[in-house]
């Protein structure tokens, strides 16, 4: 990494500057729950995130350009374009769950969307909805309505972000459903290039940024089994942990179970054996 300058750390990724135009994004095996990075890593998690993102970037470029310039041989490092990032988490919900479910129980709405009465937990919404949130530097992101989001990025840009987010979600949901996975919700981050063009950045449709449910076990009215980090969240919740730093160590069975869920999601969605990806990362983009 001698040619790159370390410029930042996220919960999962390390960020390096390659030059004035390019960044190197390295996805670690760290896992966070409730905005706390846990002390135990999940083997190969970073490679799953990187490979899945590259897979989706290659297939959604006709919907919106993305930041990916190239995958490196380690399967966890990507060369990316530098962008001016928008200060929004762009969330699309196709099903009512998570913080959206909590909002709905309290108010009958989420992020300004008034929803039909009588929805059950995990129920499919009549149409996917765009529910932006703040990007908190510390603590939790907060759901906001479209008016508040428009104040952050401008009404015209927000309309473009909403349209693109919904198009991405519909495309990926159809692909995933045909392979036995429901994408309940997902979040995107967008930036602007030097010409002011909207560009998809960070990651796309991974188990860290999305809720993946096995379609054959789906049953509204309860929480769902998943291929994402809900397995770790549930374990942490069972401990009575107060959700502040430091987080709990994960036992071997939770580590193995989480890795297996991430890898299964990768293999179902890409239709590529994970070992093949490890040997040839560029295979996911073909």
Walk me through the structure.
The protein is an alpha+beta fold. 32% of the residues lie in helices and 26% in strands. The strands form four sheets. Strands 8, 9, 12, 13, 14, 15 and 16 form a seven-stranded antiparallel beta sheet that branches. The protein has a five-stranded antiparallel beta sheet with strand order 1-2-3-7-6. A two-stranded antiparallel sheet has the order 4-5. The protein is globular.
Quickly describe the structure.
The protein is of the alpha+beta class and 286 residues long. The protein is built from seven helices and 16 strands.
Topology of this structure?
Layout (H helix, E strand, L loop, with lengths): L4 E5 L3 E5 L4 E6 L4 E2 L2 E2 L7 H16 L7 E4 L5 E5 L2 E2 L2 E8 L2 H10 L1 E2 L2 E2 L9 E7 L2 E2 L11 H8 L1 H23 L3 E12 L5 E4 L8 E5 L15 H9 L13 H19 L3 H6 L7
Antiparallel strand pairs: 1-2, 2-3, 3-7, 4-5, 6-7, 8-14, 9-12, 9-13, 9-14, 10-11, 14-15, 14-16
Helix pairs in contact: 1-6, 3-4
Silhouette: globular
Low-confidence stretches: none
| Major beta sheet summary | 7 strands, antiparallel
- Summed over residues and divided by their number, the pLDDT gives a mean of 94
Strand proportion, as a percent range, falls in 25-35%
- Percent of residues in helical segments? 25-40%
User: Could you tell me how far the N terminus lies from the C terminus, measured between alpha carbons in angstroms?
Assistant: 27 Å
Structural class: alpha+beta
Total beta strands? 16
Number of helices: 7
Radius of gyration: 18 Å
């Amino acid at each position: 990494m001698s040619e790159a300058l370390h410029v930042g750390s996220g919960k999962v990724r390390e960020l390096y500057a390659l030059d004035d135009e390019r960044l190197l994004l390295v996805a670690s095996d760290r896992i966070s729950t409730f905005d706390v990075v846990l002390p135990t890593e999940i083997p190969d998690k970073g490679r799953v995130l990187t490979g899945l993102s590259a897979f989706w970037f290659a297939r959604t470029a006709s919907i919106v350009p993305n930041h990916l310039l190239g995958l490196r041989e380690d399967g966890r490092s990507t060369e990316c374009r530098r962008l001016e990032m928008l200060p929004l988490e762009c969330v699309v919900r196709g099903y009512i769950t998570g913080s959206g479910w909590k909002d709905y129980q309290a108010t009958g709405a989420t992020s300004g969307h008034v929803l039909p009465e009588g929805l059950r937990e995990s129920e499919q919404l009549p149409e996917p909805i765009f529910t932006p949130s703040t990007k908190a530097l510390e603590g939790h992101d907060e759901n906001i309505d479209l008016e508040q989001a428009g104040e952050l990025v401008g009404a015209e840009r927000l309309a473009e972000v909403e349209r693109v987010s919904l198009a991405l979600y519909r495309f990926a949901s159809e692909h995933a459903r045909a392979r036995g996975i429901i994408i309940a919700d997902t979040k995107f981050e967008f930036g602007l290039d030097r010409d002011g063009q909207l560009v998809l950045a960070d990651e796309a449709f991974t188990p860290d940024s999305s809720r993946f449910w096995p379609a054959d076990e789906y049953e509204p009215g309860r929480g769902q089994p998943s291929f994402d980090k809900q397995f770790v969240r549930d374990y942490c919740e069972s401990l009575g942990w107060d959700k502040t730093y430091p987080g709990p160590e994960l036992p071997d069975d939770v580590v193995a179970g989480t890795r297996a869920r991430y890898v299964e999601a990768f293999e179902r969605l890409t239709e590529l054996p994970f070992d093949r990806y490890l040997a040839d990362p560029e295979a996911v983009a073909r």
